[in-house]
Design goal:
Number of strands: 14
Order of helices and strands: EHHEEEEHHHEHEEEEEEEE
Structural class: alpha+beta
Number of domains: 1
CATH architecture: Alpha-Beta Complex
CATH class: Alpha Beta
Shape: globular
Largest sheet: 5 strands, mixed
Strand content: 25-35%
Radius of gyration: 24 Å
């Protein structure tokens, strides 16, 4: 019989994803699963006010309610066999808990970010034929680009609250040193008091720094994730989470004991599966802006 380690480690896994997953703010946004692999995305439209007549009564309006079905495609799994003596001779280093922690930290979480961010780019550019910004960012223009994005979102009615700026560490450094930024630096008064120059938000926009390896425009997911041939580096991306559906349908981690039919040997069989996908909302694309290195 297998032990389901998603159930065993649920709290720890939730904490790890919240801490280490850059894209943890993205979610379902009201979409519903209608079967094992399909989500249903609702779109509601309503007509506006009409002139009121004091003779009585109300003017009738129209309501539109449509659903778009999207099929999840990113279905991943892996298994590891660990000989019983390897567990014993490593003093439990090769235990299920340690394997889970290492795999989630070094593979599962980075791949989730890489897939989601590259899927945003792919859908934005290919599915919806939108144009990304290829300005070469410097400390003198990075805030000009950002301000232009913010202004465009404001004009389009994108909610101000909740916007997120995903960016490379190098771009965050540009923002720190931008000439338009007014600073107030304080130390704690101690002789060795540290000075903290970290910028966690900009104009009420949360800043999330993305490792460069998770911020390419395309990946090859044959084994793990590696940048695809011709992939470009993204520099920063301003999004409102309500523009995106990030669906995690299924997550399972099983451990089969030695001698069980699934382990097929004198050892422990570790199995891990994760199934989900990401989609953009066609009527909320104004909530997405991307800057990337120009292609050759």
């Amino acid at each position: 019989m297998a032990i389901n380690y998603v159930t065993q480690f649920q709290t720890q896994l939730d904490q790890k994803y919240a801490q280490d997953l850059v894209t943890s703010d993205l979610g379902l946004n009201g979409a519903k699963f209608i079967n094992a692999q399909t989500i249903q995305i609702p779109t509601i439209t309503v007509s506006g006010y009409k002139e009121h007549s004091r003779a009585g009564g109300f003017k009738s309006g129209t309501i539109g309610n449509t659903f778009q079905a999207k099929t999840l495609a990113h279905d991943r799994d892996i298994s590891f066999f660990v000989d019983a003596m390897d567990v014993d001779e490593t003093n439990q280093v090769l235990s299920a808990a340690n394997i889970t922690n290492t795999f989630e930290t070094e593979q599962a979480i980075p791949e989730t970010d890489a897939y989601r961010l590259s899927k945003i780019y792919a859908d934005y550019k290919t599915t919806f034929s939108k144009t990304t910004d290829t300005t070469v960012l410097t400390k003198d223009n990075v805030l000009t680009v950002f301000d232009g994005w913010m202004e465009a979102m404001d004009d389009a009615g994108v909610p101000e609250d909740g916007r997120i700026l995903y960016c490379l560490a190098a771009v965050q450094t540009l923002i720190k040193n931008a000439s338009q930024v007014a600073r107030q630096i304080q130390a704690d008064g101690a002789a060795d008091g540290a000075i903290n120059r970290t910028i966690r938000s900009l104009d009420n926009v949360k800043i999330k720094t993305v490792p460069a390896g998770r911020f390419k425009t395309a990946y090859d997911f044959t084994e793990g994730f590696v940048p695809a041939v011709g992939a470009l580096q993204m520099n920063m991306m301003l999004v409102h989470p309500k523009s995106i559906i990030a669906a995690d349908k299924h997550s399972a981690i099983y451990l089969w004991a030695p001698g069980s039919s699934a382990s097929a040997g004198d050892g422990w069989l570790y199995q891990n599966r994760k199934y989900g996908d990401l989609f953009l909302l066609a009527n909320k694309l104004d909530g997405i802006k991307i800057n990337n290195v120009a292609g050759v």
